[in-house]
Amino acid sequence: MTLCLGISILHHYGIVERFGHFPHRNEILE
Q: pTM of the entire structure?
């Protein structure tokens, strides 16, 4: 997975907006 793709996925799920940072894998799974 490329970094750009990862960022796109984070934005898609709104994780970046919710956490204000790149969350750990455990937070993504939750």
A: 0.29
